[in-house]
Design brief:
- It is a single chain.
- By secondary structure, this protein is mainly beta.
- The protein has a domain of 158 residues.
- 9% of the residues lie in helices and 38% in strands.
- Strands 2-3-15-11-12 form a 5-stranded antiparallel β-sheet, with no helix packed on it.
- Strand 8 and strand 9 form a beta hairpin.
- The protein is globular, with a radius of gyration of 20 Å.
């Protein structure tokens, strides 16, 4: 199976290219389970954020329900400084409400256009009584062969120190290079951090299998899972 990797149009050309997932050597499992573990762990690619090698981001859920996104940059002397921060969302409603650039270091090399591209790669969903979600797009997207989709999951081999896994989702990548987005559910006060080398998630390529609907005529029963309207 051949999968095409394309650069995301948000901050194009910036970001660690996806790499094949690998099983760490120190993982232990019963001998009869090792083949399955190996197969699951090495399936697909690790995906990274659209960041330069000297950049890092932090996402924090504030007490008022808004997300604070900040980007730091390290100079040639090894000194790290916050480049800019953005507050997105609020106590209710979809992301983008009250979006404000709170800080920007004029010595930073990142341009205003790149800041706009990074902000456009984020999404939030904060609704009363539900978990707050933050989404971030990977630096690259995928195009799969016909009848194959992209499954976005937490990395099997790279557990996060903050303990916040990404939510699973399925993307139809056989007909359009949909954005590879990873979403995270937060509680107030929780935060996650990413660097150029920190995978935000893992993609696994899965076939679109037909399903049978019970209680409908036979000619209408076989429907490909996830097929767009008019493509069943």
């Amino acid at each position: 199976m051949q999968v095409k990797i394309v650069s995301n149009y948000r901050r194009p050309g910036v970001g660690h290219r996806p790499v094949r997932a690998r099983l760490p050597a120190d993982v232990r499992a019963r001998a009869e389970l090792q083949p399955e573990l190996q197969s699951a762990s090495e399936s697909g690619f690790l995906v990274y954020a659209p960041l330069q090698p000297n950049e890092a981001i932090e996402v924090l859920l504030l007490d008022d329900g808004a997300f604070r996104f900040s980007l730091s940059s390290t100079d040639q002397e090894g000194e790290s400084a916050e480049v800019f921060s953005v507050v997105m969302g609020g106590s209710s409603g979809w992301g983008g409400l009250g979006r404000v650039v709170a800080a920007r270091d004029e010595r930073a090399t990142i341009t205003r256009q790149e800041i706009d591209q990074l902000v456009s790669a984020m999404s939030t969903n904060v609704m009363p009584g539900t978990a707050a979600q933050f989404g971030f797009l990977g630096a690259h997207n995928f195009i799969t062969p016909p009848e194959w989709n992209t499954l976005c999951v937490s990395p099997f081999n790279v557990p996060r120190d903050d303990g916040i896994p990404c939510l699973n989702c399925l993307i139809e990548t056989d007909w359009y290079p949909q954005n590879t987005e990873f979403r995270f559910a937060f509680k107030k006060g929780e935060s996650i951090c990413f660097t150029h080398d920190t995978p935000i998630g893992q993609v696994v390529f899965v076939p679109r299998e037909p399903v049978t609907l019970v209680g409908v005529p036979v000619e209408e029963a076989a429907v490909p899972v996830g097929a767009p309207a008019g493509r069943a």
